[in-house]
Amino acid sequence: MLHFNRCPHLKQIAQKCFSRIHVRTDKHVQLFLSRTFALAEFRKSRHSTHSLVGDKNIILMGPPGAGKTTVGRIIGQKLGCCVIDVDDDILEKTWNMSVSEKLQDVGNEQFLEEEGKAVLNFSTSGSVISLTGSNPMHDASMWHLKKSGIVVYLDVPLIDIVSRLKLMKIDRIVGQDAGMPMKDLLKFRRQYYKKWYDTRVFCESGASPEEVADKVLCAVKRYQDVDSETFVSTRHIWPKDNERTVSTKFFSEAVTEGLASDGGLFVPEKEFPKLSCGEWKSLVGATYIERAQILLEKCIHPADVPAARLGEMIEAAYGENFACSKIAPVRHLSGNQFILELFHGPTGSFKDLSLQLMPHLFAHCIPPSCNYMILVATSGDTGSAVLNGFSRISKNDKRRIAVATFFPENGVSDFQKAQIIGSQKENGWAVGVKSSFDFCQTAVKGIFRDSDFTGFLIMEYGTVLSSANSINWGRLLPQVVYHASAYLDLVSQGFISFGSPVDVCIPTGNFGNILAAVYAKMMGIPIRKFICASNQNHVLTDFIKTGHYDLRERKLTQTFSPAIDILKASNLERHLHLMADKDGELMTKLFNQLEEQHHFQIEKMLVDRLQQDFVADWCSEGECLAAIRSTYNASGYILDPHTAVAKVVADRTQDKTCPVIVSSTAHYSKFAPAIMQALKIKEINQASSSQLYLLSSYNALPPPHEALLERMKQQEKMEYQVCAADVNVLKNQVEKLIQNQFV
């Protein structure tokens, strides 16, 4: 069978493994290894490894006119196997009349029932089956088919289906009542196709049946090759014979473990999947949710997250949680500059774009036999976004997943602090630390690397630690979607044609957002230059210009843009690993040197590679405020301080020969004092709530963020913990939270 009950099977395997463990000094290491073994055994049990001509059927599903019959015949010829067309070979032979006659004779509802019964009485193996367009509307028959085959969804653009049906002179299909437009019924049917497919073939306009058939075979091969898409640490050193070692992980393991055991970050072993020009063009008219599903399906193997389940997660993440239906709209600012608005989520920052989805991925990937404590370091926006995201998982998942977010007590804006503290829920807590974000981030990484402590938590409390910062692959991956979507929106709005280059300018602290744009380019989005915008903590700008990452005698400066008040950019390691041809030995050397000597220098060849794609500069506090003021005076648009940093740098570095998309990473309401100072509003000493309401009265763009206004209405003071800047103190706090939540 292709559909398995995930939890009981894993529990049996895990219990079998755990029963073999002998308690020794390194008992937690053995427990960790047994857990990894359990996941591997479960994965093997979950998917068949039959060849394409084995006893599994290839089941082609899609709307009328998708080409299922034609493509099925081509696949049958290629594989030398039987081809069955449900219309011709099952229904018409069962009924002794044509399908159209049957529909006219019995009507829509009775037709679906009799069609389903005919399919239930049919069985085969090792065949290619072309379904009718209405088969997926009958649950029992689809479950029957899925037991013996792989369901492949031929996803053809709606406009192509409508034109094909006209050419075929088909003016009515099953379920179409009098007066209902064909387009509306086809849209309605998509929910059934999404429910049943195991893998999707995205059929761009103009693709020939032979091309689609080849895509189907590739999709089926990928589906069955469950070990084909693995992850390695950026510090993994490949043996000379290039044999795979235990260091390779599956997507589900990379998400649940967060940080690699050697201190590195997980990255795909292979290159990012690349979409063809035709596939990208077919996404121009798609919604954000549709784009997200297509792109993420290509990056997440269905053995880790089945496509239908992934679709449910994406719907839950972006369906109703965002104030703007476009999720991440692009707004023309002036000239060649466009603003990518990433602040319409529930906490008003770009972190929502990934942290509304990542908790669902995480909850799906973890085994049911362990509890998980998520540790998060935040420079401002991540904390509230993580707490909000994990508060939206199911009640059962909340019982086994908790979150502790550590923030610099005096290093975030007053509003951000109130938002983090106010976002605490039954499974999430905020902890202030009397230090900087860099200390918080380093401390959290250190806790993950402390095998004695993590092993103790596993043995004593059955609790595993993980992360939700952008060091976690499940957090970084969804960010690729909005960079791709922004480009497609420019095409859709007629500002550019597909294939025309754009630059992106991103306020950068931890390097995750700009790295996601790099990955979007690897998937086929024609980004010309990545403009890295820094504030007065411009270590990244200096590095991109010189190749020297130098923290010696460099102190963190608090600025109006606290989310990029960062000196140690964690995700830079992923990009250097990519540029250095996946040289894990070099990454180990460089980042160990950064920890021990507080600087490193990359060789000239790598500097040249970096500067081929990257441009960098920084913005002073005065320039930041001036940009907010001048932009408002010119257009009535209020930039938040981070976006203002990016605009200043874009103005200074971009040559205006192509559009530049400036990432607006937070809503200005979160930084009311800075905005009021920039706009020279005298009532600067008012309470945060008064400042927010005053700004909302300005009738500026973008409009007020309702969720943030609602947050300020909540007057109750929530308690939170404050810790000294001591890793041992943080460990004690983590243990106490685990005791309170899970014991």
TrEMBL record:
Alphabetized InterPro entries for the sequence: P-loop_NTPase (IPR027417), Shikimate/glucono_kinase (IPR031322), Shikimate_kinase/TSH1 (IPR000623), Thr_synth_N (IPR029144), Thr_synth_N_sf (IPR037158), Thr_synthase-like (IPR004450), TrpB-like_PALP_sf (IPR036052)
Superkingdom of the organism of origin: Eukaryota
Span of domain Threonine synthase N-terminal: 247-318
Positions bearing N6-(pyridoxal phosphate)lysine: 351
GO cellular component, as recorded: cytoplasm
Keyword rRNA processing: no
Family annotation (Gene3D superfamilies): 3.40.50.1100, P-loop containing nucleotide triphosphate hydrolases (3.40.50.300), Threonine synthase, N-terminal domain (3.90.1380.10)
Keywords from the UniProt entry: Pyridoxal phosphate
HAMAP family: Shikimate_kinase
Protein family per UniProt: Belongs to the threonine synthase family.
Name this protein carries in UniProt: Threonine synthase-like 1
Lineage, highest ranks first: Eukaryota, Metazoa, Chordata, Craniata, Vertebrata
